[in-house]
Request: fold
Amino acid sequence: MRRLLALVLLLTAVAGLAGPAAAGFAQPAVVSERPVAWTPDVLNGTVTAIAVLGATVVVGGDFTQLADPSTHRKYNRGYLFAFALGTGRILDATATLDGPVTALATAPDGSGVFVAGKFAKVNGAPRTGLVKLDPTTGTAVPGFTATAGKGQIRSLAAAGPWLYAGGTFTQLGGLPRVGLARLDATTGAADPALDLHLARRNRGLVKVEQVAAQGSAVAFVGAFDTVAGKPRPQIAVADAASAAVTDWSTDAYTGRCNTLYDSYLRGVDIAPDGTWLAVAATGGMSGPTRMCDSAARFDLTGPGNHKPTWVNRTGGNTLWSVAISGTAVYVGGHMQWMDNPKGHKTRGPGATPRSGIAALDPATGTALPWNPGHSRGVGVGVLLTCPAGLLIGSDTDQVAGEYHGRISLLPTA
Reply:
């Protein structure tokens, strides 16, 4: 069935019937529209973070109950659990936390999974806001001693010897850091070289919503106006080697959206080749000239101000997450449509219906034919690509018309 679906998509694209891709070129390959049947069901709360380490999937959030989809056995498991990739078997060895998980990242050397959240204890021992765990035993990895200071970690990204953290904190790894920090992935010590002095003009709360790292590029988005004294409204790129903000910039997000939002960029991911990035935005407003409630691609090559390569607007519905597979840009959120610049929480001319999740052409940004559908709720807040496919985390339980409690896997077709 999966091979047949992939063949149908390919033939449709070549025939020019699947959308506005350039004539003579097949649409990029996407994952299957049918989720696997074996992922565990999260019965309440929200899945806010997913990480994959080998054959183990680690899931974090504010949930407290799980169920095995084959045996229907229920588990009282708060905030964090792990399951086997390929079978969905819920692993018994899981750390005990006293508060929700907000972010996860896999150590680049495979030595563990970093867990951030609103907790003060891990397995009964004091550990504030950040820990490195062995997911097979549930124990803290010795040597990594970083704890979060005042504020909260909202995002983690690991690359090379480093762990990047973004959030609302003012201290991390033993050093004063506002919103963004880089830690030694082995010891947890903050890197004194990377101190980018994020700030807001009105002295409001600095907040990094998402950080992504790929090769030498480190991109981050959120509520800030300047980075290292340079104008960087809501998005900036740092160089991992020099530990400095780069000359890359964009003024695309200087315009205001709904005044209720202190910032409206919510997600960022960097392409596997490191040459471009994609972002996801909320904003509560719509229109063909606004960047609110949109996905956009920006090239990373060259200094100076960058205009988006493309923009795809939802017509006024939030996008929370973005993940680049190399052949597609997946976006998740509360949207009902893509390709909808003239919609105002309505279906405007040319809009493509897409509930909760969509795949965009990396070259043009238009919606691909792929359309499994996802119940909307607050929205799809977690997208993670891995060799097995696309993992999805949310607050709802319907994918492709099937029940999948708050986490699902759309396999590689």
